[in-house]
Amino acid sequence: MIEDYRALAVFVAVADAGSLSAAGRRLKLSTSVISHHLSRLEAKMGMALFFRSTRSMSLTAEGRTALAPARRMVAAGDEALDALSAISDEPVGALRITMPAWGERTGLRLKLWDFARLHPLVAISLQSSDTQADLVKEGIDLAIRLGTLADSRLKSRRITDFGRVLVASPDYLASRRAVKTFEDLAACDFIAISMLPDAMTFECDGRSVSFQPDNVRLEVDTIGSAKSAILAGLGVRHLPLGEVEEEIASGKLVQVMPQWSVPDLGVYAVWPDFGPKKALTRRLIEFFLDDRAVLLP
Predict the structure, then answer these.
(1) Spatial distance between the Cα atoms of 21 and 284, rounded to a whole number of angstroms
(2) Across-strand partners of 208?
(3) Domain match, 166 and 258 both
(4) What is the 3-state secondary structure (H, E, C) of the chain?
(5) Would residue 260 count as lying in a domain?
(6) I want to staple 140 with a disulfide (CB 3.0 to 4.6 A). Which of 58, 73, 89, 135 is the partner?
(7) How far apart, in whole angstroms, are the C-alpha atoms of residue 139 and residue 23?
(8) Does one domain contain both 185 and 260?
């Protein structure tokens, strides 16, 4: 019977993830193991649960009939484990987390490692990416996201802020007229990051100015790539202060128009707002909030 429960959990993961490989990543199992459990379940039931092609999988009528009760079984198991974790001094379970790829040395990462060290019975799977994941589809318990949030299906809590600075390489600035005004800035080449808006707000002595770059020379998909392009002398961009402090101190990067500051951006913990309550997720969020001052430099 335990094998049947395991196979049903695999069935739900494949239905939600859309493929054997995606379900394997979610469950931390090889594609061959996922295929074995699914094939065994179909053989035992004497029916196919999925239509298979080289590019996709879709539920058969029998699969659609079985999915809702199978999903309730998985949810009930999650709820039982979550309830036990909530009352236990030593939490047990697994967390799938996604964080931005930048900031490997920030306090946020170090705080997560502290949590893992304090709770050895909690298995943690961390995905580092500057591209936002679909938490529901990918089965992620907690995401750390920057800036404003739009997905109403998700709960969120602001856990800290991070400062930003507008920077360029000395060689790039030496190749053009001095950047002293917003007209000078508008003539600069900008590095865009696909997941973040290009528009900026600058503040100085109670004044606020909105600025939209005209000349986007290069678009990248990670903050690390944007930093690399700026160091290569390709343009200007505002970046997290913690990512460029060392380069500013060493002179590899220069702050542009330093009299104008870029407002801090919020850092949010985000998690799905449905299904069984995730006591383990809440415990990690509270652990982050226990000392906000160390989360980011």
Answers:
(1) 28
(2) 203
(3) yes
(4) CHHHHHHHHHHHHHHHHCCHHHHHHHHCCCHHHHHHHHHHHHHHHCCCCEEECCCCEEECHHHHHHHHHHHHHHHHHHHHHHHHHHHCCCCCEEEEEEECCCCCCCHHHHHHHHHHHHCCCEEEEEEECCCCCCHHHHCCCEEEEECCCCCCCEEEEEEEEEEEEEEECHHHHHCCCCCCCHHHHHCCCEEEECCCCCCEEEEECCEEEEECCCCEEEEECCHHHHHHHHHCCCCEEEEEHHHHHHHHHHCCCEECCCCCEEEEEEEEEEEECCCCCCHHHHHHHHHHHCCHHHCCC
(5) yes
(6) 135
(7) 9
(8) yes
Q: pLDDT band for 187, please (50, 70, 90 cuts).
A: very high
Tell whether the model's pLDDT for residue 89 goes beyond 80.
no
Write b or e for each residue in 103-122: b if 16 or more Cβ atoms lie within 10 A of its Cβ, otherwise e. beebbbbebbebbeeebeeb
What is the mean pLDDT of the segment spanning 213-229? Answer: 91
Among 78, 109, 144, give the residue marking a domain's end: 78
Report whether pLDDT(201) > 80. Answer: yes
In the predicted structure, residue 38 carries a pLDDT above the cut 70: yes
Domain encompassing residue 16: 2-78
Predicted local confidence at residue 257, as pLDDT: 95
Q: Which of 183-187, 192-196, 262-266, 289-293 has the lowest mean pLDDT?
A: 289-293
pTM beyond 0.90, yes or no: no
Where residue 28 sits, what CATH number does that domain have? 1.10.10.10
Facing residues of 120 across strands? none
User: Residue 47: inside a domain, yes or no?
Assistant: yes
In the prediction, which pLDDT does 277 show? 47
Q: Write down the mean pLDDT value for the chain.
A: 86
Q: What is the pLDDT of residue 167?
A: 97
Residue 84 domain flag? no
